[in-house]
Write the C-alpha cells for this entry.
Amino acid sequence: MKLSEHEIKKVLFSAEEIKTRVAELGKILTEDYKNKNPLLICPLKGSIMFFSDIVREIKIPCEIDFMTVSSYNSNTVSSGEIKILKDPTENINGRHVLIIEDIIDTGLTLYNLKKMLSGRNPESLKICTLLDKPSRRIADIKGDYCGFVIPDKFVVGYGMDLNEKYRNLPFIGIYESENT
Ligand code: IMP
Ligand code: MG
C-alpha cells in the first residue's frame, strides 16, 4: 500500500510507536486497576484496534464489553449528538468501568456517553483515550489516561476512518484531501 494512494501525506505515529505507547498505558492500567476486576468498554468501531491491543497489555483479571455510539455523520465534522445503537451487555452498576476510546475531538461524544453511563451507578467511570485533540474541544471533558496529544488534523488508520475507509492501516496518518 502506497501512502499516496490513500491521500495520506504523513504518518503521525508508526505501528511501532503505537505499540510502545500502548504497552506503557497497559502497565499503568494494570497497576491502577489491581483487584478491581474492571469492565473495559469499547465504543465501536474506531477503538477496536486500540482496544484489542491494550486489553492484552492489562495483566490482571478484567472483563470486556462493546457499545455502538454514533457521533459522526459522513463527513469530518462532529454532529454534536450521540445515539446509543448498542448498549453494553453487562450491568455496570457497582463496577469499575473504563471506556477505551480512539480519540477525543470536540469531546461531545464522551461527555454524553459519560453522563449516560454515570446514571447507571458504576463504582468508578474513567476514560482512556489513545489520542487527544484538545484544540477542538467543546465539551468539558478530559481523558484520565491518554496516549498522545495531537494537533488539529484529521487522522485515520489504526481503527479510525474517513467514511469507513482506512481503518485497516496499521499506522496513524494525517488525512488531507486533494483539494485541501
Ligand atoms: P468528538 O465527539 O468530537 O470528541 O468525536 C469523537 C469521535 O469522532 C471519535 O471517537 C472518533 O470516532 C471520531 N473522530 C474525531 N476526530 C477524528 C479524526 O481525526 N479522525 C477520525 N475520527 C475522528
Ligand atoms: Mg470513537
